[in-house]
Design a protein that fits this description.
Oligomer: single chain
Radius of gyration: 23 Å
Shape: globular
Number of helices: 12
CATH topology: Alkaline Phosphatase, subunit A
Distance between the termini: 55 Å
CATH superfamily: Alkaline Phosphatase, subunit A
Strand content: 15-25%
Helix content: 25-40%
């Protein structure tokens, strides 16, 4: 080959490498931002709850295992090493510690605002979907402000003016059978919400604002026949939020709680825990699938605290034997100080990991929301 030809080949290779490098830099500069955030909270889901599901499923793949990043989370409150759902919910929603039993206020009693409130102020779409009373401590922390979690009617009064676009859960009597005789569902109707009595009534709803409170207090447990209401409600909320955000040109923030993992863990009911964890895993699958098909979506899976102190020891003390079976043992019928698991999937998942505090999750989510435009 002549020198001139060699020179031309080298020059072509250099240009090609430069072009590849430049293209790579451009791709990095155009990296997809977080537009949508789906926060999934397994109430009471401690470090052994996911392994217990894996064991009961005979190690068939679970949706939890699709996560890209994981962390352990400290959950202590301002006044107790063992948090309750009010303080933990406030930490996850607002990014600040508070005392047990307090909703949406710091330990000094000052009002603090949740990431749902921030999302609303940014013009984003928002949703809350739960399997419990919507005024229960964890969901309440995302929209209400109260000195005590038991102020059920006071907490309910914050919801009609919250601006939250899609609301599915229980707790109807706090809105319709009140000491002040005010029917808060009328306020929702006056604000342009579609008010429905069952999830099936949402089948033909494709956009707008909707509230469905499907039980006087909590929805039934999985063991008592709730079926797939929570995954279905999650999918329906995502469909509505997507249609709304396509019109507005902005993304959304959605919180879904697997509320009754906590109830079954308080009862030390291993069968009930399995049912609620399987149901929550299905919710995780809905959210992860959505993230796969909608770039710019971050899914955060976390817990407010551990309930029950569950362990899974062998049925025999001699661990040198073959399969000896396992049993579920509980250290408490209450909450514990154990760190909880957190999993992250989709756009922005790499922002999380290691050992973090519950407030760190909310702070990072807030940062991503503020940088979403």
């Amino acid at each position: 080959m002549k020198k001139k030809n060699i020179f031309n080949v080298l020059l072509s290779m250099t240009i090609a490498i430069f072009a590849f490098t430049l293209n790579s830099c451009n791709k990095e500069s155009k990296e997809v931002k977080v537009k949508n955030i789906i926060m999934l909270i397994g109430d009471g889901m401690g470090p052994t709850h996911i392994p217990s599901l894996m064991l009961e499923e005979q190690y068939a793949p679970t949706n939890f295992e699709r996560a890209k990043r994981a962390a352990f989370v400290t959950t202590y409150s301002s006044n107790n090493r063992v948090t309750d759902s009010a303080a933990a919910g406030t930490a996850l929603a607002c990014g600040e510690k508070t005392n047990n039993s307090i909703i949406g206020l710091n330990a000094d009693g000052d009002t603090i605002y949740s990431n749902i409130t921030l999302a609303e102020s940014l013009g984003m779409e928002t949703a809350i979907v739960v399997s419990c009373d919507i005024t229960h401590a964890t969901p309440a922390a995302f929209y209400a402000h109260a000195q005590h979690r038991n102020e059920r009617e006071n907490i309910a009064s914050w919801l009609p003016n919250s601006g939250i676009d899609v609301i599915f859960g229980g707790g109807l009597t706090a809105f319709t059978n009140r000491d002040d005789s005010i029917n808060l569902m009328t306020k929702f109707k006056e604000s342009g919400y579609l008010v429905i009595d069952s999830l099936s009534q949402a089948d033909d709803i494709t956009k707008g604002k909707v509230i469905g409170l499907f039980a006087d207090e909590h929805l039934p447990s999985i063991v008592n026949g709730r079926g797939d209401a929570l995954p279905k409600a999650t999918q329906k909320a995502l469909d509505i939020l997507t249609a709304n955000s396509e019109k507005s040109g902005k993304g959304f923030f959605m919180m879904v709680e697997g509320s009754q993992i906590d109830f079954e863990s308080h009862a030390n009911n291993a069968k009930g825990i399995y049912g609620e964890m399987k149901d929550f895993d299905n919710v995780v699958g809905v959210a992860f699938d959505y993230a796969d098909s909608h770039p710019g979506t971050l899914v955060v899976v976390c817990a407010d605290h551990d309930t029950g102190g569950m362990s899974i020891p062998s049925c025999k003390t001699d661990f040198t034997l073959g399969e000896s079976g396992v049993e579920y043992s509980f250290g408490s019928t209450s909450h514990t100080a154990t760190m909880t698991p957190a999993l992250f999937y989709g756009t922005g998942a790499d922002e999380f990991g290691a050992i973090i505090d519950n407030t760190d999750i909310a702070k990072k989510v807030r940062e991503l929301l503020q940088n979403s435009f």
